[in-house]
Amino acid sequence: MAPTFSIGKFIKYFILVFFAIIFLMPIYVIIVTSLKPLDEVSLANMWTLPTAIDFSSYAEAFSNLAPNFMNSIYLVVPATLLSALLGAMNGYVLSKWKFKGSDIIFTFILFGMFIPYQSILIPLIQFLRTIDLYNTIPGLILVHVVYGLPITTLMFRNFYANIPDSMIESAKIDGANFLGIFRHIIIPLSITGFVVVAIWQFTNIWNEFLFAVTITTSDQQPVMVALQNLSGSQIVQWNVQMAGALLAALPTLLVYIFLGKYFVRGLLAGSVKG
Amino acid sequence: MAKEVQLKSKKRITKDHWTAIAFLIPSFILILVFVYGFIGWTGYVSVSNYNSLIPDFSFAGLKNYIYLFNDFRFQADLRNTLFFTILFIGLVIVIGMGLAILIDQKLKGEAIFRNIFLFPMALSFIVTGVVWQWLLNPSTGFNQFLSVFGIQPKWYTDTNILAGFEWGSIEFGLPVAIIAVVIAAVWQMTGFSLAMYLAGLRGIPDELREAARMDGASEFQVYRKVVLPMLMPITMSVIIIMAHISLKIFDLIYAMTGSGANFVTDVPGVYMFETTFRGNYYANGAAIAIIMLLLVAVFIVPYLWNSRKGEQ
User: Fold this and answer.
1) What is the protein's membrane topology class (chain A) (predicted)?
2) Has residue B239 been placed in a domain?
3) Residue B69: inside a domain
4) What is the pLDDT of residue B9?
5) Taking CA atoms, what residue in A is nearest to B236?
6) How far apart are CA A45 and CA A30, in angstroms?
7) Which terminus of chain A is more exposed, N or C, with fewer CB under 10 A?
8) Is residue B172 within a helix (H) or strand (E), and if so which, with residue range?
9) Is some CB atom of chain A closer than 8 A to the CB atom of B296?
10) Domain that holds residue B187
11) Per the domain annotation, does B290 fall within a domain?
């Protein structure tokens, strides 16, 4: 009995380690290539370690991406906060103040989460031009707040469904009204909810590309568009592209490393129907 | 007195309900305009003659749709989307579920494995595309290992169509180049299904598996007869979520391969972007977008319908 058990265990570890290596290979290539000096970057020695560590590709990638990196920050912070706040308001109403038709309204909002954004892009750009927000960061913030509403509403609605109705009922008996309950009971209980939603929105908006590339041009562009331009240009060396990819991915990677638990909770909250 | 209190509270509840509805109104209007209104507007553009920089909203009937379905590029896009979707969903489910079952075995280091498989979820499709473009470049990357075995796949530069036959104006079959894009997409999204399956597995009480073992079921049978059926709802959710990601995919392909020779890696999302914003064929772009929306709706509407009914 004992030997077969350990063979089974060995096979399990073997498969896990095999996949782990494959999953880590891209990261290995990014790090190794980005630390190589220019003369060591060639197609033939992609996998070899650099002979000396050289940060010049980071310096070059940084000077290329820094302005766009800041654009992404100006975009992500307000868009995340606003969409989380609106999501909390909607989630509160749709879970604790249900009325006739509120479930239909929820589904009506939720549908917006699944649409291909190509199907609203042409009118959206005409609209943004009309209100003078085309090619601006505030325009992009507006877009991400609006199209973030379905997912933040869903997450908060699921989150608030776990707060017992009896708490709301007893607060009502104590004379608290709609806003009072929201401010004094719901918000204090929502800290985790806000963290989960904020991390989810931060990651999604930081990584988003279609809106970014169609709504903004050159100096207004967020970092992902700048990275794509960097890799698309023939004159930029491959080590700089890799350094750029790592710089652009760093904020979301750090969030994942330090707050991964909440990231996964967001992933589950947004996918498992509530 | 008692009556008065009751009346008062009743009155307040209605007032509170009005406040609640007022809370919802801004979001409701935004969604109404930005989602439904704009879809309607796109639909209107898609049946117009607006195919240049000068807006021309004269009615064109289904002209743009007929053009697309006869178009070599769009036919290739539909073929590519079909094979991409099937391979992508299949692999994300099989690998995600397999790794979740292995991680759920209470082996040492499970947290490390889980974190390794999940981290690509935090990256953008653009980063994934930029990196995998080099890893699957035929003259470097993985081919340096594969040269030991004497095989040198051409990955996304391959223009072959497997098991191809004439269909419309294209060769229908599996475009070999799409496999390279599927690999990159699976690398990025497997963490999603893994996390969902892990949550599902943790929700299955141990007693159930114990009981099956007591009845003499082998470990394999326990999974096939007890665990797998209980994971069915999760598999359904994974299929829906992956299908809608796959049908609207744009950034990964745009960053990694572009349309490819003979459009072997082109998809509707890329075509829509290029024809609308690079070519100014607004009506054609709108028609592509409406077709994409309809494809997604085939999956999403029944899903939303069911989850609403499930709640009642």
Assistant:
1) Multi-pass membrane protein
2) yes
3) no
4) 47
5) A272
6) 13
7) N
8) strand B170-175
9) yes
10) 74-279
11) no
ipTM: 0.91
Rounded Cα distance between B96 and A34, Å, is 30
Q: Do B28 and A109 touch (CB under 8 A)?
A: yes
Closest CA to B105 of A99, A11, A84, A18: A11
Please give the structure tokens belonging to residue B58: 């004269």
Strand, coil or helix: what is B24?
helix
Q: What is the pLDDT of residue A1?
A: 43
Q: If you average pLDDT over every residue of chain B, what do you get? A: 89
β-partners of residue B137 are: none
Looking up residue B237, the CATH number of its domain turns out to be 1.10.3720.10
* B14 and chain A in contact, CB less than 8 A: no
Interface test with B, best of A4, A109, A120, A151 (most B CBs within 10 A): A120
What is the overall mean pLDDT for chain A?
90
CB neighbourhood size of A209 (10 A): 21
Q: What is the mean pLDDT of residues B87-112?
A: 93
Strand pairing report for B161-167 and B170-175: antiparallel
Question: Which of A210, A253, A256 lies at the smallest CB-CB distance from B250?
Answer: A210
Q: B118 and chain A: CB distance < 8 Å anywhere?
A: yes
Whether the CB-CB separation of A214 and B86 falls below 8 Å is answered with no
- The answer to whether A5 faces chain B, any CB pair under 8 Å, is no
Report the range of poorest mean pLDDT among A260-269, B169-178, B301-310: B301-310
Q: Residues A93-134: pLDDT tens digits?
A: 999 998 888 999 999 999 999 999 999 999 999 999 999 999
Whether residue B78 lies inside any domain: the answer is yes
A227/B126 Cβ within 8 A: yes
Q: Which among B109, B146, B131 has a CA at the least distance from the CA of A24? A: B131
Of A18, A155, A116, which Cα lies nearest the Cα of B272? A116
Name every chain B residue with its beta carbon within 8 A of the beta carbon of A196.
none
Phi-psi region of A238 (alpha: psi -120 to 50; beta: other; left: phi over 0): alpha
Distance CA B154, CA B260 (A): 12
* pLDDT at B7 exceeding the cut of 60: no
Burial group, residue B189, by CB count within 10 angstroms (0-12, 13-18, 19+)? buried
Q: pLDDT tens-digit profile of B14-48?
A: 788 888 999 999 999 999 999 999 999 999 999 99
Number of domains in chain B: 1
Is the model's pLDDT at B255 over the cut of 90?
A: yes
- Residue A273 has a pLDDT of 52
Structural domains of chain A sorted by starting position, each given as residue range(s) with its CATH number in brackets: 1-54 (no CATH), 58-271 (1.10.3720.10)
